[in-house]
Specification:
The chain is an alpha/beta fold and 410 residues long. 34% of the residues lie in helices and 22% in strands. It is built from 13 helices and 17 strands. It has helices at residues 79-96, 115-120, 132-140, 152-162, 180-190, 204-210, 226-234, 267-279, 284-310, 322-331, 363-368, 382-388, 390-394, and strands at 16-25, 41-48, 55-57, 103-107, 124-128, 145-146, 165-171, 191-202, 222-223, 238-246, 252-259, 315-318, 341-343, 360-362, 373-376, 398-401, 407-409. The strands form 3 sheets. The protein has a 7-stranded mixed beta sheet with strand order 6-5-4-7-8-11-10. A 6-stranded mixed beta sheet has the order 14-13-12-15-16-17. It has a 4-stranded antiparallel beta sheet with strand order 1-2-3-9. α5 (180-190) links the parallel β7 and β8. The longest helix is centred in the C-terminal third of the chain and has 27 residues, at 284-310. It binds zinc ion.
Length: 410
């Protein structure tokens, strides 16, 4: 293990190992047969900090291995997510950008799915997106974007060139960044005195309640709660002033952060912290329970897939999500149990899934010959997907979901 892997990245206390997942590949590392013997693996271990209560990965893989120029994830692929980001943008415009010459910055702005709403409204904006090919899509749409990692230094450069920001936004980005202190210090520099950081990420409370362990993979360095997030921002003179649970990505939390004392703290913050205490987010035993629940979920899914195989049923994976990498590798699901994974993303088609090496095939192959069962890796979009796949159902197809519990649906 690398030096420092056992210490909290927020407060430096010694971490407790909560859930060991074993060797894992990079969740988005779709590969060709030629690359099998060069595949990069690391030890995926969920750690719990008994001091500041931040839940985090113990070993962090090199970030250059994750966010490179061929990064395969584009935000603008789901109608539901597109609607979600429009709603997010509208809320920010109405709530925080009413002054003249407002300036909004987004970290991890991807292909501009959210910033386009600010650009279209003529609001001064800047996207920060380290993946060059994804950033280029945004630039081509006329969205001002720079290809950098955000940190304290970049915050200073932005303020020098554009002035301070009224709003700094992040969607499914903050939890990806191992060097959080430099980011939070940058937030402090970037925000106007009345400015806000509004970000959302998968919520630890949902992971615990739903045993949605597939949220845990290399890109997610942290699993935030209001409790741990409050601790982090308070170290930098900032505070959580509002929280709003979001029903996306299988359960997320939106946090509004402001300079300490600049804005009133909403009752929702107090209520959510009380809820977290009741859920046991400050107790190591809670995570022992999570570990047992994850083991049970794995055993139930494997038993189901093995039974179907013995009964001659065809099972195909539906959507080659980042999440599916944790499930296939942790459970040991390979192409003898799941024939292929159907996915609409051209960049993944014809490749193999990370670690488990299940072939990724175009969606047309799923449609051309429906399997008996589809293993729904995109369970967080279950409603949208099941509603769309009426023909699969009409052909007698059934869905396998594994969150919040392993079951056959339809
Ligand atoms: Zn800590």
């Amino acid at each position: 293990m690398k030096n420092g892997d056992n210490y909290c990245r927020v407060c430096n206390a010694e971490l407790k190992l909560a859930v060991p997942f074993g060797k894992m590949p990079i969740a988005n590392g779709y590969l060709t047969k030629d690359d099998f013997d060069k595949e990069y693996f690391f030890e995926l271990q969920l750690g719990f900090c008994p001091n500041c209560y931040m839940v985090q990965l113990m070993t962090q893989p090199d970030r250059e291995k994750m966010f490179h120029e061929n990064y395969a994830f584009f935000s603008s692929t789901s109608a539901r997510m597109a609607a979600h980001f429009k709603e997010f943008a509208d809320l920010v415009i109405k709530g925080y950008l009413q002054s003249a010459n407002s300036f909004v910055v987004e970290i991890g702005s991807n292909d501009g799915i959210m910033l386009q709403h600010f650009a279209n409204s003529g609001i001064r904006h800047l996207g920060i997106e380290p993946s060059a090919n994804v950033a280029q899509v945004a630039i081509d749409k006329g969205i001002r974007t720079i290809t950098r990692f955000f940190d304290e230094q970049l915050a200073g450069e932005i303020v020098e060139e554009y002035g301070q920001a009224n709003a700094f936004l992040g969607a499914n980005v903050m939890c990806h960044i191992p060097y959080l202190h430099s980011v939070v210090a940058g937030v402090n520099i970037l925000l106007k005195p009345e400015g806000v950081l509004i970000f959302e990420d998968p919520y630890l409370g949902d992971i615990l309640e739903k045993t949605s362990y597939d949220q845990i993979y290399d890109e997610h360095a942290f699993y935030f709660s209001v409790t741990s997030t409050s601790y982090l921002f308070e170290q930098h003179g900032l505070e959580v002033v509002d929280v709003q649970p979001q029903n996306v990505h299988g359960g997320s939390m939106r946090y509004v952060i402001a300079h300490q004392g600049a804005r009133p703290v909403s009752i929702a913050v107090v209520a959510q912290r009380a809820k977290e205490d009741a859920l046991g987010l400050r107790n190591a035993e809670t995570f022992e329970g999570l570990r047992k629940n994850i083991e049970h979920s794995r055993d139930a899914l494997l038993n189901l897939l093995r039974n179907l195989k013995q009964n001659g049923k065809r099972v195909v994976g539906y959507a080659a999500t980042s999440k599916s990498t944790t499930v296939t590798n942790y459970c040991g699901i390979t192409s003898d149990l799941v024939e292929f994974i159907s996915d609409t993303t051209p960049i993944k088609q014809g490749k193999y899934s990370p670690g488990a090496h299940i072939p990724i095939r175009p969606y047309a192959e799923f449609q051309a010959r429906y399997p008996d069962y589809a293993l729904l890796f995109g369970w967080n979009h279950a409603e949208e997907i099941i509603a769309k796949e009426q023909q699969f159902k009409a052909a007698g197809g059934k869905w396998i979901v594994y969150v919040p519990k392993v079951q056959v649906v339809g």
